[in-house]
Amino acid sequence: MMKYVGTAVAVALGGAVFTAPAMAQNEQFIPALVYRTGAYAPNGVPFANGIADYYKLVNARDNGINGVRIVTEECEFGYATDRGVECYERLKKNGPTGAAYVIPLSTGVTFALTEKTTTDQIPIISMGYGRSESRDGSVFQWNFPLLGTYWTASDIILQHIAKKEGGFDKLKGKKIALVYHDSPYGKEPIALLTERAKRHGFETMFLPVTHPGVEQKATWLQIRQNRPDYVLLWGWGVMNSTAIKEAVAVGYPREKLYGVWWSGAEPDVRPAEDGAKGYNAVTLQHTAGQFKLHEDLKKFIYDKSAGSAKWEETGEILYVRGLINAMLGVEAIRTAQAKFGNKPMTGAQVRWGLENLNITEARIKELGFEGVMKPIKVTCADHEGARTGRIQTWDGKNWQITSDWYVSDDNVIGPMVKEAAAKYAAEKKITPGCLTN
Amino acid sequence: MLGPILETLIGGLMTGVLYALVALGFVLIFKASGVFNFAQGSMVLFAALSVARLSEVMPLIVAVLIAIVIMVALAYAIEFLVLRRLVNQEGIILFMATLGIAYFLEGFGEAVWGSDIYKINLGISKNPLFLFEGIFPGGLLIDREEIAAAVACAILVAGLAIFFQVTRVGRALRAVADDHQAAQSVGIPLNYIWLIVWAVSGIVAIAAGMVWGSKLGVQFSISLVALKALPVLILGGFTSIPGAIIGGLIIGAGEKLAEVLLSPMLVKWFDLAGGGIENWFAYVLALVFLLFRPQGLFGERIIERI
Fold first, then answer.
1. Residue A277 at interface with chain B, using a CB cutoff of 8 Å
2. Where are the domains of chain A?
3. What's A150-283's CATH class?
4. Is A37 within 8 Å of B220 when comparing Cβ atoms?
5. List of chain A residues whose C-beta atoms are within 8 Å of the C-beta of residue B115
6. In chain A, what residues touch B279 (CB-CB under 8 Å)?
7. E strands of A224-306, at which residues?
8. For the segment A121-148, what is each residue's pLDDT rounded down to a tens digit?
């Protein structure tokens, strides 16, 4: 019996290989590094769904990007840096022109791929993560930390705190703690906080939490003992909900707790239930909720039962972030096509598209993202493209926007970027300069 | 200063009880079969997922009862499909088999129950208790859930002690633990004993999973908590139930005190890049104990004729 089953499986697999259609020449391949399993799956799944659905929508509604259909393949890496690099290596040459770009959704993988993608000529879109200095496109020619870096995030939080206190001068003598994922990601805001502390005379306290972040008792006992005036949270996955629960357990006021945009989604607050009420997070521009684009998503994808998520999940923060990230990638390809022709683009051509990306208010409206994000204009000198954000607060059921727009202060961040990028260039023997094509 | 140290010590001891709950499952299986069950963490995750998802559609108590049935069925499947075929094989072969079971259970659990964060609500208030507020400024903080865990642990240990010492099955279990072949030769059914011990271990996993799940939310990382049971076992010995408890308490208290008191000093003195030492400090503590008692605090001293 087993022999027959084995034969049947072999025939089925062989058939699949031989009957799979050869990849057409008019297709644009985009790899998808995802984590739908493992410790970080609750955050990885909605983001991956948002990206997948946007590509489906572009194919179903517009027949691709100017007639070039998007082909994507997911590779599961469980948020493990080594497996993420493996996924990249496996997928980078797929499609008629190779990978258009890569979205790692991991600062660790972004760090690991930064040199490889330069050699492979494939741009990295690290929207809202990665090295903060990578916004300097003359050194990091292939990295695009679109919409915001961690220095932008921490600066916006500090501006908000300063505003609440009555100005930056009122921060003198205050104590601000950072509870961070003990990884390259978590350490990113330390430089900005140190710089701001030096300027304004507040005290900092840095408290690392080891992966995956389920053990935080000692950290929060230190918070209880030192009573910082504010705590910034730089977590991911289960670390976020555990931090909020521990804040409840030691009685630290959630109103004084501010998360980065990767600590401000529904999976981060729901497990803590009412305990999360009053907790704040900086936004990567957008918050939760459905918008104009969802009409098309419903019509072309969800009404045809082709959606990756449940319909009611399509307004969640990380799903929306996936949509925005995919849209920025698609628009970069479209920008590149305007220069190089309506055909599948190479990584190098998409890099040019990213560096010349200019999404105006009118274009945002056309794309169905009105009210979700602000315009973005990328240049060689500025691979971040936009540095704005707001503060949102969890009311026990939903995220509510509770501040105006802030723009991170380039008088503080600009020189830091310049110095860090120059240091990186010297270490890696890179001659800074803008690529023309 | 005394208040914060006492608070850290109490918090550490309470966390240690939670580690001990997971370590108990390892000890049970190791005692009865000499197998280091790498799948124990995955069993805790699977049990917690079962309780959490079932309790969404039925009362918690019913969900727990069904979860017990699931864990017993799982024990039967493991015994029938894996262990029965590996009787009298080297310990390392059995260990590798449990490694396979661990990965299967994690993947299967996520496939069946989902990979989101789920809730187990034990009805215990999340707000802490503050004791001796008159003596220590701000009082001594105690987590109510951890008190519940300590009570659950005490009940389990008492129950297991009675089970092992008094019942006929318990005596048979101890005989199997000493020598598989000798136990078989006097008529003790090995397969039946293994089934019992894996089932009991599954039930302990439910208790551990419920406590950890209520504290952290039920999701994949719970299986990683089992890694914290390893230094507990190294320290307490692989065959001793009291060892698991004492080991848990020492590791819990040691790592928390180290993180709060030692870590800031290390960072300051050596200008370290990171300060999170509690994860590896637990192993250092266990290794220091091993220097003096290689078999662990309560483990059996193995003397072999050569």
1. no
2. 23-148+288-387, 150-283
3. alpha beta
4. yes
5. 36-38, 41-42, 45
6. 210, 215
7. 230-234, 257-259, 280-282
8. 999 999 999 999 999 999 999 999 999 9
